[in-house]
Write a structure and sequence with these properties.
With about 120 residues, the protein is mainly alpha-helical. The chain is built from four helices and no strands.
Length: about 120
């Protein structure tokens, strides 16, 4: 949230005024906090759930559902007219990058024995 607000303050891009907004919006447009935080939360949860599954198909399912939900959240921001598509894209990129950093930190901790290693995949 702090990163999102710092980026909004740094870029200071106004929101689109193509359609009337349902309520007053006082924050800047770039990047979309909803898109960023949905990518962080859902992709991180998807990765954590995928770690618990021994089968590759189940892992892919959790990651795909998480990505789909994050895409829906971002698309809704453009549909509602409160963000430009590039705002949402930037939010997804930063959010996915944050989730990737969390995943890499987990791998780093696994190698040092600080967290449990992922289960070995089953055959089939």
């Amino acid at each position: 949230l702090l990163l999102s607000n710092a980026l909004k303050w740094g870029f200071a891009r106004p929101r689109p005024d193509l359609v009337p907004h349902g309520q007053a919006v006082y924050t800047q447009s770039f990047p979309s906090s909803h898109a960023m935080l949905s990518a962080v939360v859902y992709l991180t949860l998807g990765a954590l759930l995928a770690r618990t599954q021994p089968r590759r198909r189940a892992k892919l399912y959790f990651i795909a559902v998480a990505a789909f939900v994050a895409v829906l959240v971002g698309a809704s921001r453009v549909y509602l007219g409160v963000h430009w598509p590039t705002d949402v894209l930037a939010g997804w990129v930063v959010g996915a990058g944050w989730a990737l950093l969390c995943w890499l930190a987990t791998l780093w901790l696994q190698r040092r024995g600080r967290v449990e290693a992922e289960d070995a995949p089953e055959e089939g």
